[in-house]
From TrEMBL:
Its main location: other. It is found in: Cell surface. This is Prepilin-type N-terminal cleavage/methylation domain-containing protein. InterPro entries: N_methyl_site. GO terms for biological process: establishment of competence for transformation. PROSITE patterns: PROKAR_NTER_METHYL. The keyword Membrane applies.
């Protein structure tokens, strides 16, 4: 009789218990699904920021090198040769834009009124895929080359 009861027991889970456990597991699963969705979105945004910072830093370093080697007019010409389009210009201001695979790279150069040959440079990286949202912006100031002596560019502070 003991063996019969062991294999033919009528004890088990009721339908309500099974449904309750399924509902609880579903609620827990949805919580984790929301967490994974948020983590994926955050990872994508972080990747855009890292890419934007790298592009802006490389662009700023390129402009710094040009400021040490050439005049402002030669720098603008060199940037145009590097696929930048001149958007607007005036006597003391240049705005250029370059289209990358997923980004616009905006470069603004504005001459400081107080210091001769000192230019404020702003590089903005804008995400074309995300409603043209600005990803990053780097600003700096450089003293541009005044004259060339052989291969050396003379700035205000040099003799």
């Amino acid at each position: 009789m003991g063996i019969y009861n062991r294999f033919h027991s009528e004890k088990g889970f009721t339908l309500i218990e099974i449904l309750a456990s399924i509902v609880i597991l579903t609620i827990i699963s949805l919580g984790f699904l929301a967490l994974f969705t948020y983590a994926s979105k955050s990872n994508s945004e972080s990747e855009n920021i890292i890419d934007g910072n790298a592009i802006a830093q490389t662009t700023m370093e390129n402009i710094y090198d040009l400021s040490r080697e050439s005049s402002i007019d030669q720098t603008i010409t060199q940037l145009e040769n590097d696929a930048y389009q001149l958007i607007s210009t005036s006597d003391q201001f240049y705005h250029l834009r370059k289209q990358d695979n997923h980004y616009y790279i905006d470069v603004e150069l504005k001459e400081d009124n107080d210091t001769s040959s000192f230019w404020l440079v702003s590089v903005q990286v804008i995400d074309k895929r995300n409603n043209e949202k600005r990803v990053t912006q780097i600003e700096s100031g450089y003293i541009w080359c005044i004259e060339r002596f052989g291969n050396r560019c003379s700035t205000i502070n040099e003799e």
